[in-house]
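Why this split exists: single-chain examples teach little about how molecules sit against one another. For that reason, every record in the complexes split bundles all components of an assembly together and asks for one structure covering all of them. Below is a record exactly as it appears in the raw files.
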Amino acid sequence: MNITLRAWRQAGPSDEGGFETYQVSDVSSDMSFLEMLDVLNERLTLEGLEPIAFDSDCREGICGACGVMINGRAHGPQAATATCQLHMRSFEDGDTITVEPWRAAAFAVIRDLVVDRSAFDRIIEAGGFITVATGSAPEANLTPVPKETAETAFDAAACIGCGACVAACPNSAAQLFTAAKASHLSLLPQGGAERYVRTERMVDTMERFFGSCTNHGECEAACPKQISIDFIAMMNRDYVKAKVKNRGNA
Amino acid sequence: MEFYRSAVGKKWVMGVTGIALLGFVLAHMIGNLKVYLGEGQLDSYAHFLRELLYPLLPKTVTLWLMRTGLVIAFLLHIHAAASLTLLNRRANTAYRGPRDLAVASYASRTMRWSGVIVAVFLLWHLADLTWGVTPMAPEGWTAGAVEANLAASLSRGGVAVLYIVANLLLGIHIYHGAWSLFQSLGLAHPSYNRWRRWFAQAFSAVIVIGNVSIPIAVWTGWVG
Ligand code: HEM
Ligand code: SF4
Ligand code: FES
């Protein structure tokens, strides 16, 4: 396949940036999108040019490093697929493909397609953990978890923190990420103890960086892990309850 | 107050005030349909509203209580909408390349516009049929002659079109709103999520058909 790639190039956070057009020839349809970028980058390096900076790590859809905006869709055209698992067969020979970094005020562009997602770390630090004494592990079977609860918690725990939900949201809201990270803990007995304190802290931190949800549903459509917006409703309800239950300890 | 300072809290308030406004819009539409029951029915309904809960409360007190509640709901709804819109403007950075929205509906993308236009229409509508302020109100507007005023107002072609367009926009607004409010209030569950969509579709369809039928009925000479 031959592809025309319009890629966002930006030397650093304070650089203006702009699109550059590249011809990428002899692309195999079995290559992943990132492998196509690798091929282009090798050529750019040989030509003495700067390769296009992008993030990736696992390349199997589990680390969340690789997200970019492809033809106006977060992680590209295929549903439930991270950029590293998107294959070039999703495109036609001769296509022009536009790649851009995630855009949100809280996601500053570091270079080319790489953005700073550390606002997510601030949300996790606020409550995305359980407070337990370390040491000898308690007997696991002492804490029964109904299968259905475990399944729901696991659906939320599938979040890889990629940021596609924010990138796809016209409001740059981080509700889906925050809801997934709060509920996968809050649904289980170990995390349930701190449910309301966690929700209040995580939501308040989220709102320092991100926009407000208007229920477009774009996040759910973009999420490579198909996390449901039902978790957002659960978080909203817990936040209201938290305001009644928490007594100034949040 | 601290709750309202948060965006999730503001959305909750929008949901609750949205329910109050939906209740009003439904009751108002049902009241409007009285025009089809024949001469004098609408006028006596208007009269009934002024005597609601009388003699428990003095005349028009109940009406004013409801009006006060609605005004408060409206102001909160608009204040929350405006402040969240500003928050979202600050949080968002535009894409430079194409944007291909996957599922956001026309209704959800235009909430601000449909809301603002409905609000402006509402003022126009009050000046027309409640306060009798020209040029919004028709010539010969008379306090208490509800049905005659209505027929006179809507027999002006441009005004009939305005009422129809405004009610379509209202329908679009509540089509998203009546689904979205469950999400904002935290009421989503796989067991009834499908039902939320139906509810929003049915609710907005009933409101639009009921209200839009009236200018059409006046225009075809069926009423008035
Ligand atoms: C006065 C002008 C109005 C403005 C500026 C306005 C604006 C908005 C905005 C921006 C939203 C948020 C969109 C979203 O998050 O989905 C919204 C939601 C909503 N609006 Fe309005 N609106 C107005 C009037 C009305 C009226 C008359 C009704 C009632 C029939 C109504 C019912 C709703 C409902 C039910 C929601 C959903 C609330 C939620 O998601 O929690 N609005 N409105
Ligand atoms: S919720 Fe989905 S889209 Fe958002 S960060 Fe997690 S995996 Fe990515
Ligand atoms: S590189 Fe790890 S999810 Fe794509």
